[in-house]
TrEMBL record:
Regions annotated as coiled coil: 14-65
Record's keyword annotation contains Coiled coil: yes
InterPro entries, per database record: Map3k7cl
Source species, domain of life: Eukaryota
Name of this protein: MAP3K7 C-terminal-like protein
Protein keywords: Coiled coil
PANTHER family per UniProt: MAP3K7 C-TERMINAL-LIKE PROTEIN
Originating species: Chelonoidis abingdonii (Abingdon island giant tortoise)
GO cellular component: cytosol; nucleus
Signal peptide range: none
C-alpha cells in the first residue's frame, strides 16, 4: 500500500513538472518571437538611418548642382544682355 501511495505522489509530481515544462516552453517561444521582432526592428532602424544619410547626401549634392545651374544661367543672361546691348 505504501508503494502505491509513493507511486501516486511521484505520478502527481511528474504531471506537475510536465505541465511546468510545457508552460516554460511556451514562454520560451514567446520570448524568441519577441527577440526576433526586436532584432527586425533594430535592423529596420539601421536601414532607415542608412537610407536617411544617403538621401541627405543626395539632397546636398542636388542643391549644389541647382545652385551651380542657377549661377550658370545668370552668367548666360548677362552675356545675352551684353550681346543685345552691343547689337
Amino acid at each position: 500500500m505504501e508503494v502505491f501511495k509513493q507511486h501516486c505522489q511521484i505520478a502527481e509530481e511528474y504531471h506537475e513538472v510536465k505541465k511546468e515544462i510545457a508552460l516554460l516552453e511556451e514562454r520560451k517561444k514567446e520570448l524568441i518571437a519577441r527577440l526576433e521582432q526586436a532584432e527586425k526592428e533594430s535592423m529596420d532602424a539601421a536601414q532607415l538611418t542608412k537610407e536617411y544619410a544617403e538621401l541627405t547626401e543626395e539632397n546636398r549634392t542636388l542643391k549644389l548642382a541647382q545652385m551651380q545651374c542657377a549661377e550658370q544661367l545668370e552668367k548666360l543672361r548677362i552675356q545675352y544682355q551684353k550681346r543685345q546691348g552691343s547689337s
